Amino acid sequence: MTGRRMLVVGAHSADFVWRAAGTIARHTAGGGEAIVVALSYGERGESGGLWKEQGQTEENVKRIRHGEAERASTAVGATFRAFDFGDYPLDVGPERVDQLAELMRDFAPHVVLTHPQLDPFNPDHPAAYAAVARARLLTSGAGVASGFRTAAPSEFLVFEPHQPELCGFVPTVYVDITSTIDAKAEAMSSMAAQVYLKEYYQQRAEQRGNHARKVTGNADIRYAEAFQRILPNVVTEL
């Protein structure tokens, strides 16, 4: 993984933690570089624990969430970027898509991870997918010489949503995160505003580890994260 660059884009500041923290940690532990982008802090709809405090404000929630996400990113060896577009609803208009595309051109990621296209319970996750998919296309152009700055096309995958069976999510890739489960646990513990999700995603990692063992026969796999490829994986042989 040395020299490979990974871009992870979440609608909210904690999304990368639950869905991909172990994978990010494996990537950076192997010498890769990772940037985590939060299109919003999830200050309005994803910070229930903080809104129980009397006199709470959006700006204070953003400040707390920024600190949480930075600590979680550090735990997995990634750099955190906050775009602060606002949540519920997350509105990613043309100028904001251009901002994301510009980051992609600068960073030139080898792989991009984001939300699936569908989510009947969260209006911001599909908005994030649409923005990332469009920005990625604008980054690489049409595969020919272009009148604007481009970067090479990246691999494009979506991470597992909270309720995969309702989001059209079918795993096509399992990443063994047994060696980085402690880093994921540390990242999850950093997100105090949503601490109730830690047990759920710890269990999900164990379940996906079980599935990965069945696929490979490798009894050493204890934890895994699931992803779905949006584009074909190109190889020279099978």
Total number of helical segments?
A: 6
* H/E topology pattern: EHEHEHEHEEHHE
Specify the structural class.
Answer: alpha/beta
- Strand order of the main beta sheet, please? 3-2-1-4-5-7-6
Q: Note the gap between the termini.
A: 20 Å
Quote the beta fraction: 5-15%
- The tally of domains stands at 1
Work out the number of β strands. Answer: 7
CATH superfamily, please?
Answer: LmbE-like
Please give the share of residues in helix: 25-40%
Biggest β-sheet strands, sense, barrel: 7 strands, mixed
CATH architecture: 3-Layer(aba) Sandwich
Shape: globular
Oligomer: single chain
Question: Mean of the pLDDT scores?
Answer: 96
Please compute the radius of gyration using only Cα atoms. Answer: 17 Å
The CATH topology annotation reads as Rossmann fold
Question: What topology emerges from the helices and strands here?
Answer:
Elements (H helix, E strand, L loop, with lengths): L4 E6 L4 H15 L3 E6 L19 H18 L3 E4 L11 H14 L3 E4 L9 H17 L14 E5 L13 E4 L4 H10 L7 H19 L7 E6 L9
Helix pairs in contact: 1-5, 2-5, 3-4
Short description:
This protein is an alpha/beta fold and 238 residues long. 39% of the residues lie in helices and 15% in strands. Helix 3 (94-107) crosses helix 4 (124-140).
